[in-house]
Amino acid sequence: MEAGPRDTDQDVPGTQHGAGSLSPDGPDEHDVAPEVEVELRPARRLRIWQLAPIVGLAAAGSLMFAFPLAFEFGGGGAVVAMLGLLISCCAAGWGMMAARRVGYTWPGLTPRGPAERPDWRAIALYVALCAALVALAVWRVARLR
């Protein structure tokens, strides 16, 4: 009786190992099929049900912002314009968060997950662009009064 699992046929002279059997250190190389990596999850994309409310809010907000500024309605035009600007900004933020969740990023910013730091020049450019747009919008609404 032996103390552990062994290939006893290997020790006996005159025995033949057939093709496809195990060698002493594992399966034969020619019997192993090549491995193929397959992604089980579908590609992450923004769906129409995610985009429709974002686009609807953005369109309504931009129209609320543009019409009082373009046609200068009565004294309430500035309030309607600021409300439209607020709704447009909310839609833009909602869209950016949905895109970030799916995996899209702005140029210069890192994708979600890795520990890389974003480029500070890109962030400074985005902040300056947003500040300029807000300043122009506030200046235009203030001119309505």
Number of helices: 4
**Poorly predicted parts:** none
Structural class: mainly alpha
Main pleated-sheet profile: none
* Global mean pLDDT: 75
Q: What is the overall silhouette?
A: elongated
Q: What is the CA-CA span between the terminal residues?
A: 103 Å
Helix fraction by DSSP (H/I, runs of at least 4): 40-55%
- Rg, Å, rounded: 33 Å
Strand content: under 5%
Number of strands: 0
Strand and helix order: HHHH
Question: Outline of this structure?
Answer:
The chain is mainly alpha-helical and 145 residues long.
Give the SSE map.
Elements: H1 8-11, H2 48-71, H3 77-102, H4 120-143
Explain what this protein looks like in three dimensions.
The structure is a single chain. By secondary structure, the chain is an all-alpha fold. It contains four helices and no strands. It has helices at 8-11, 48-71, 77-102, 120-143. Helix 2 packs antiparallel against helix 3 (77-102) and helix 3 runs antiparallel to helix 4. It is elongated, with a radius of gyration of 33 Å. The chain starts with 7 loop residues before the first helix and ends with a helix.
Jot down its keywords.
4 helices, 145 residues, single chain, elongated, mainly alpha
